[in-house]
């Protein structure tokens, strides 16, 4: 039994984010402290943030043990979150201090809260009531005792701020100072939602019963794009809130949040808390603190929201659960989908994994009965699924340096004539993927990475998509110095836009690519403009494949359906299948039927045929059988080891040493492959070597891995990272 409270002077173990491996002993401060308390402790000459993790070990000279500096004014970290950090750390082989860092990413944790002016109902009476004044008073009365900022109140009442100030002058409205970390407006789960279709109602009922059970469970909510998955899981959110518990909705892309916030506001009467990189520091701090106090009911966020200090988390929704961006690829390597399941199991919470094209992992878990499974078969209302067809590029008459086939051109033209939108999809940022010198054949590459420099013509620069380094477009070849000989090879979205502008000079064209927007707000504005019909042709990378609703979009043209099928990655088929079905799902979401045309040189390829036929079960079965036979995830376990360093030979030597000393893994029946150059053999000047470990399912892989790599001495700038369940293999 661990104790919850430590009296002054008792030994406590404090975990800090410093890389020390374990909790250090301190004496509880004056007034004592709770288990889980956030504290400031002296460490050498510094003061660092820590959490009381348990009783002290007492293995230090007691005269040297220092006292906790002070206890911070935030809710102690709950036992569930501490257990989650420990288990997630053990799973991903991440030391606890690094896990703690994920959970303490709130700015200004140790600062006292700053104040701001708010307005609430006052005791006085206004001298006269104008319409505007009446609206302000009605708004305040509607929300009872709540206080609002000037901006909030005037927006809600639809008045200028001077109206509020006028009322304040008479005392009808009272001005007060409150800490910035104010509770969020309450969401009202009792407001009626949309009337659900029969299918939706069945699915919603199942989810609601699951949430009401108050126990752990995971449900795969599969439904074609536009079938109403969001409407359905919002019902589960409603029941979670009714039970007085908190809910978290994870989205793969910040650009999707604003549409989602609006939907939540329509459904529950107020906006939820937000947690992602586009949120201001003040708001993040508020979100973090209010969650701990139970003064925020719903968070919509990015994967890092999993580490927030919820007081009572009852439901986690992972929307577009197949999305690869849920995998964090640097620092702590974790998959938010899997971590959501772990956190929910510790919190006795429910998980909903929503997708039109689930990951093979989730599909297999549903098949095996580990996850419940719900299916929404049809699109809501009049919307029907797009017709999918291949354009056989071997039969199309296209000049060099052109990529929009005559067949596709004809279809776009029809859409223009009818005032409908077309989306041309190409998963390649920039102008051209390769820049080559026509005099010497040199391909311009990055100095620091094993990657080509990609021309971004809008910015007149070359960019490395690995390290982000950019430089001005050179006039002469970096190798042979020939002037004016550098030429683009192949298409990127910018070049495609150029081609479309020539073919359709009258069309309004927008390019949607993550590098073209300086801010989340700019991207949001562009997406809203498209949704409102301000664009005829959208040219986009996979940014557009994700859940946006463009009601006038009736044609999707995939420029290169074969793109993802090249290369040796075993997940290529799954990825291509998901991406093609997702992007096609953008077409025909409202009352007009949609078409999705895929340009391909290999229409007979099994993956292309599966995409066209829409036989998803057949595709998954075949893919599953192949993985099963190869002992690959989800039917076997994998881990990747990346050794990197400034010196290629040293990295290879360490890789070879590891491969030879694989006894702890062989004992499990696991196999080590490699070392081989990593898929990208050099990034930011560091050479990268990869080993892959394949193990049977059900073995204790992590302990064996730590035994294997744990004792390795890293010299000469070498680094070693373990990637459990790697994305590519
Ligand atoms: P998904 O999440 O599966 O892509 P959404 O929940 O976004 O689907 O639904 C697609 C569109 O259909 C949305 O605009 C949504 O508001 C609408 N919709 C879905 N179900 C209903 C319903 N029962 N009543 C009214 N509108 C609905
Ligand atoms: Zn680079």
From TrEMBL:
Function according to Swiss-Prot or TrEMBL: Initiates the restart of stalled replication forks, which reloads the replicative helicase on sites other than the origin of replication. Recognizes and binds to abandoned replication forks and remodels them to uncover a helicase loading site. Promotes assembly of the primosome at these replication forks.
Cofactor descriptive note: Binds 2 zinc ions per subunit.
State what protein this is by name: Replication restart protein PriA
- Transmembrane parts of this sequence: none
Q: Which reaction does it catalyse?
A: ATP + H2O = ADP + phosphate + H(+); Couples ATP hydrolysis with the unwinding of duplex DNA by translocating in the 3'-5' direction
**Ranges of residues in domain Helicase ATP-binding:** 210-376
The record ties this protein, via Pfam families, to: DEAD (PF00270), PriA_3primeBD (PF17764), PriA_C (PF18074), Zn_ribbon_PriA (PF18319)
Q: Choose any GO biological process term that the UniProt entry carries and state it.
A: double-strand break repair
Q: Which cofactor does it need?
A: Zn(2+)
Cite a GO CC annotation.
Answer: primosome complex
Recorded hits in NCBIfam families, A to Z, give: priA (TIGR00595), PRK05580.2-2 (NF004070)
Q: What is its EC number?
A: 5.6.2.4
Q: Which InterPro entries match?
A: DEAD/DEAH_box_helicase_dom, Helicase_ATP-bd, Helicase_C-like, P-loop_NTPase, PriA, PriA_3primeBD, PriA_3primeBD_sf, PriA_C
Q: Which domain of life is it from?
A: Bacteria
Keywords from the UniProt entry: ATP-binding, DNA replication, DNA-binding, Helicase, Hydrolase, Isomerase, Metal-binding, Nucleotide-binding, Primosome, Zinc
Q: Name one GO molecular function term.
A: 3'-5' DNA helicase activity
Alphabetized PROSITE patterns for the sequence? HELICASE_ATP_BIND_1
What SUPFAM superfamilies does UniProt report for this protein, alphabetically?
P-loop containing nucleoside triphosphate hydrolases
Source gene?
priA
